[in-house]
Amino acid sequence: MYTMGIDVGSASSKVVILEDGKRIVAAEVVQVGTGSSGPQRALEMAYKTSGLTREDMAAVVATGYGRFAFEDADKQISEISCHAKGIFYLVPTARTIIDIGGQDAKAIRLDSKGGVKQFFMNDKCAAGTGRFLDVMARVLETTVDKLAECDEKAEEAVPISSTCTVFAESEVISQLSKGVDRNSIIKGVHQSVASKACGLAFRGGLEDDVVMTGGVARNAGVVRAVARELKRNVIVAPQPQTTGALGAALFAYEEAKKMKKEGLE
What we know:
The chain is α/β, with parallel strands linked by helices. Helix content is 42%, strand content 21%. The protein contains eight helices and ten strands. Helix 2 (79-90) crosses helix 8 (243-264) and helix 3 (130-139) packs parallel to helix 5. The mean pLDDT is 94.
C-alpha cells in the first residue's frame, strides 16, 4: 500500500511517498512555495523517482500553509501535527522539536507517545527564519550554503541586537563598513536566529531529546548556535526539510487503513 504526504510551505514544497507506512520510496523538495508550480513539480519528481502515479496512492494528506489550496488530497492536517508525527517516527526519543522554516519558527513539546503536548510559533516576523538568513547572506555577499563554513572560522560572534530583519540588515551593513570580521558577523547572525527559536522552546519548557527540523537545520552554524543557547545536545532530523511531508504520509497511511476497514464493514 502506497500513501503520500505533501507539505506546501511558504518557501518550498515537499513530497514523501511511503510503502506500507514504513519504507520511504520517494522524498522530494522543490524550493518554490505556496501559489506557484512548486507543489506540482514536487509531485512530478516524486512520481518519477518512485515509478508510481496518483492512482497508486491509497490516500494523500496535505499539510503546510498551502494545504487547503492543494485540491488533490483526501485530507488536510496542520503542520504542527505532521512535524510531530514525522519526527517521532524518525527519532522516538524526541520530546522537544525546534522547527525553523522559510518564514516561521516553531517549538513543539511531545509526550512519550509522540502526541503534541504544547507548541509555540512565530509566524509574524521573518527574523529568526530562513528568510532572515537569505537576506543576511545577500548583504554579506555570500550564499546560504556557505554560511556554516564561515561561522566555523569565526573566533567570536558579533551580537546582532536588532530584532527586525530590516534593521538587522542595516546593522550588518554598518558593521561591515567599520571593518568588522565578516565571519564573526555571520556567527552573530546564527546566534540571533538561535536565540529567537530557543526563546520559543524555553516558553514551553525543555525536555530531551531535542530535535531540529526544517530547512535551516541543514545549516550547521545555526545548529551549533542552538546547542550553545540551550546548553545541551541537539539532534538534526534525517532529511530535515521533509519531516512534515513524512508525517503527512504517515497520517495518510492511517487514513487509508481506516477507509479500507470501513469499506469491508
